[in-house]
Amino acid sequence: MPGLDEFSLIERLFAPLAARHPGALGLTDDAALIDGPAGQQWAITTDALVAGVHFLPDDPPDLIARKLLRVNLSDLAAMGATPFAVLLATCFPLGVDERWLECFASGLKTDCEIFSVAVIGGDTVATPGPLTLAVTAIGAVAQGSALLRSNARSGDDIWVSGAIGDAAFGLLVAQGRTSGLTPAAVEALLERYRLPSPRTALGPALIGLARAAMDISDGLIGDLDHICKTSGVGAVVEAGRLPLSAAVEAAMAAGFGGVERALTGGDDYELLFTVPPDKAAAIGELGRRLGLRLTKIGQIIDGEGVRVVNANGDPLTLTGSGYRHFGG
């Protein structure tokens, strides 16, 4: 489908189908919001994973299951919602091994216990095609308090959680590129690619502090651009402020790529959020309380688009902004 990516496809073909329900938010956010009981809303999201696209076909089955759950919980975290239930749809290849299935189920059980969620339904089918998996995750958030992509305002500071770029470099490691890296760096990057950490404690804690938020799935710059377009603003990112792990710095030193890979690579599933400057001290205290690295990397400005600058304020030219399905 040349010239078409998933976002233009959604806008042209599927967003009109959402117009009848305000909770769909025009299909522009991480989850839909449906009114629930006693001053609550349900945040509902679905993400699919396909072998060869979102994970390698020979990845361990328990880690595939755990990544499947975690990427969906990350969407709920981005809305400030607390997860409580999921529905699971699986399209397993014909002839799948029973031991593989048992390992997959074991991984799913592990993370259901870690994140206190229950599987409440779904579907299981066989397919002649690649392994295809989907989860619908449901969380709760106080009425009217959800974090939305559309609330960023000029003058807001831009923050991210954790470290950025580990998954992009981890994919290279998973594909067999390890030269120049220590075993510890290899293990760290692989784990970040295969087993992201949804920020389920951070998301709800950002309510009242952050204005806009989303999770980083397709690359920091591309995802920040979604916030900018939805909010009608622009952004400046300072590349020198980007929080990098020791493993990513080692990979860069070994010639795996530079800061552009960290800025545009996907699968980090960290939270990207905008905060009024007078809330900076509170964000710092929140990070200390959660034991989580929170870093200010730029500012929301009037205008449109995302600019990246170096330490001197000079613009950096990127060859891409992030991952796009359909080659758009």
The outline comes out as globular
Q: State the helicity in percent bands.
A: 25-40%
Please tally the β strands and state the result.
Answer: 11
Mean pLDDT: 90
Oligomer: single chain
Proportion of residues in extended strands: 15-25%
Q: Which regions are unreliable across 5 or more consecutive residues at pLDDT < 50?
A: 323-328
Largest sheet: 6 strands, mixed
Distance between the termini: 8 Å
> How are the strands ordered across the major sheet?
7-9-6-10-8-11
- What class do helices, strands and sheet pairing give? alpha+beta
Structure in words:
- The structure is a single chain.
- This protein is α+β, with helices and mostly antiparallel strands.
- Helices cover about 30% and strands about 25% of the residues.
- It contains 10 helices and 11 strands.
- The strands form 2 sheets. Strands 7-9-6-10-8-11 form a 6-stranded mixed β-sheet, sandwiched between helices. Strands 1-2-5-3-4 form a 5-stranded mixed β-sheet, with helices on one face.
- A hairpin with a 4-residue loop joins strand 1 and strand 2.
- Helix 2 (about 60-80) packs parallel to helix 3 (about 100-115), helix 4 (about 165-175) packs across helix 5 and helix 5 crosses helix 8.
- The chain is globular and about 55 Å long.
